[in-house]
Amino acid sequence: MPWLDKVKGVIEAWYPGQEDGRALAAVLFGDVNPSGKLPITFPRSTADTPAHDSQEWPGIDGNADYSEGIDVGYRWYDSQQIDPLFPFGYGLSYTTFAVHGLVATKQLTRNGTEKLSVDVTNTGHRAGAEVVQIYIGMPAIADEPPEQLKGFQKVTLAAGQTQRVRFTLTRADLAYWSTEAGDWATASGNYRIMVGTSSEQTAARGTFRISPPPTSTALPH
After folding, report:
1. How many separate domains does the chain show?
2. Which segments of 59-142 does DSSP mark as H helices, in order?
3. What is residue 54's predicted lDDT score, i.e. its pLDDT?
4. Which of 1, 72, 208, 220 is the most exposed place for a label (fewest CB within 10 A)?
5. Domain for residue 115, yes or no?
């Protein structure tokens, strides 16, 4: 989008259907406060994408090389430390929001859950909705992308209103595929919590830990 700095605003309307004229007018005239979020990343250039040459797409001699591995979508930009034009989960409205006050249980057993909560405040002057997103960074032993979306909630707030938003993560939410075990596994160690309004805008941060399973020791006779 090399023309971006030449326009006052951008609306991504996707495929709005036969009522697109009314919908766009409602947003442009402020009758409706937009609260949509991007389900993909918008790169600054084609070279920034994980599939930017013919080997990766459309492939050579019928073979495509998925060289990004598990770093699909926003995970690629995070792992390569590439600043996108618009990140995954991004979206603006006619008001503003702040995500703060993260509280976590700090410890999760292998068969337990991790409960998180954050405050979301409408810091603007009109009612609106925000989509709060939680991303998790796994221990290095898991060899996973730097952060991955694990949950989101949409909350509608009046101007100046604050609401507590709660998430529950299970062992399945934190599992990764172990090629050695040929099964899903949960890594022991410290997990990073990042909560915010897009994959690049995570203001509330914290950690919790999964302890290794206890080892059994034979008792003396």
Report:
1. 1
2. 74-79
3. 87
4. 220
5. yes
With tokens 């590439």, the residue in question is 82
What is the distance between the alpha carbons of residues 126 and 96, in angstroms, rounded to a whole number? 9
Q: Does the residue 135 lie in any domain?
A: yes
| Residue 25, burial from CB neighbour count under 10 angstroms (0-12, 13-18, 19+) | exposed
Token readout for 42 is 């918008």
From CA 191, how far away is CA 205, in angstroms rounded? 11
Which residues of the chain fall short of a pLDDT of 70? 109-111, 213-221
pTM of the model: 0.89
Q: Does any domain span residue 195?
A: yes
What are the φ and ψ backbone dihedral angles of 21, each rounded to 5 degrees? -60, -45
Q: Tell me, what's the pLDDT at 15?
A: 85
Q: Among the residues of 30-120, which ranges form H helices?
A: 74-79
Backbone angles phi, psi at 50, to 5 degrees: -70, -15
Rg (C-alpha) for the chain, rounded Å, is: 21
| CA 134 to mean position of chain CA atoms | 6
